[in-house]
Design goal:
Blueprint (H helix, E strand, L loop, with lengths): L3 E5 L4 H13 L3 E5 L6 H6 L4 E4 L5 H11 L10 E6 H4 L8 E7 L3 H16 L6 E4 L2 E4 L4 E4 L2 E3 L3 H11 L6 E2 H9 L8 H14 L4 E7 L3 E8 L2
Parallel strand pairs: 1-2, 1-3, 3-4, 4-5
Antiparallel strand pairs: 6-7, 7-8, 8-9, 10-12, 11-12
Helix pairs in contact: 1-5, 6-7, 6-8
């Protein structure tokens, strides 16, 4: 089987439309499972390679479901996407296990492209690369980032963005280029998502004695790995 995707949530119109779009646009096996009466063991038995959380309610219910899923050992390493109304997100800081957010109402062609790209990345990890930038090191094989000896908890997209920047030190990238190289498609929501991910990255990897990502005014960002006195 090329891929087993499970959409968790009420079998509403958008969930069913996403299932149909993924089936038509990919070779994945896609199912929708209602949360009513569903157990962690029941989800694990379906052996999903990718989970899409599509709760009827808002962010709070989604996070409750997320943390319940992480209690099941068989599901701890399964990549998770969240389908959510943008108004529900606010300034929410997503946990590391959620790799992407699909904003409702869904743009189906965009959603399919993002799911395909994420699945490709999850399945094709270079087992040899070790990227170093000052105090920052990235182990691609283990999918880990560290500042000195401290492991940094990153979401999937934050990791991919940091990896790309760190692999090209000193090179300035526009937001549009980062969208294309990291997200792998023309992101319909605009370039603001790059700024959001950069801001979250900085809050996690930078401190008063180190700076890794520099903003180049009116252009974009570059990896610098500066140590401040």
């Amino acid at each position: 089987m090329i891929g087993n995707i499970l959409i968790l949530g009420d079998q509403n119109k958008q969930g069913l439309e996403l299932k149909d779009a993924l089936r038509k646009g990919t070779h994945f096996a896609v199912r929708v499972s209602s949360l009513s009466g569903l157990t962690l063991a029941g989800i694990a038995e379906k052996e999903p390679d990718l989970l899409i959380l599509n709760p009827k309610a808002g962010y709070a219910e989604a996070m409750t479901l997320y943390y319940e899923l992480k209690k099941e050992p068989a599901l701890q390493d399964v990549p998770i996407l969240l389908a959510m109304d943008e108004s529900e997100m606010g300034q929410a800081d997503l946990p590391a296990g959620i790799q992407e957010v699909l904003y409702r109402p869904l743009r189906l062609s965009e959603a399919v492209a993002r799911v395909k790209l994420l699945f490709k990345r999850v399945r094709k990890v270079d087992q040899k690369n070790l990227i170093q930038g000052g105090k920052l090191s990235i182990d691609v094989a283990k999918y880990e980032a560290r500042v000195e000896d401290k492991k940094i908890d990153l979401t999937f997209t934050e990791f991919e963005l940091l990896k790309f920047l760190c692999a090209h030190p000193g090179t300035v990238f526009t937001r549009e280029v980062l969208l294309n190289k990291v997200w792998g498609y023309e992101y319909y929501g605009g370039t603001r998502t790059v700024d959001v991910h950069i801001r979250r990255l900085r809050s996690k990897i930078e401190g008063k004695n180190s700076r890794f990502i520099e903003t180049v005014r009116n252009i974009g960002y570059k990896f610098t790995a500066e140590e401040e006195e």
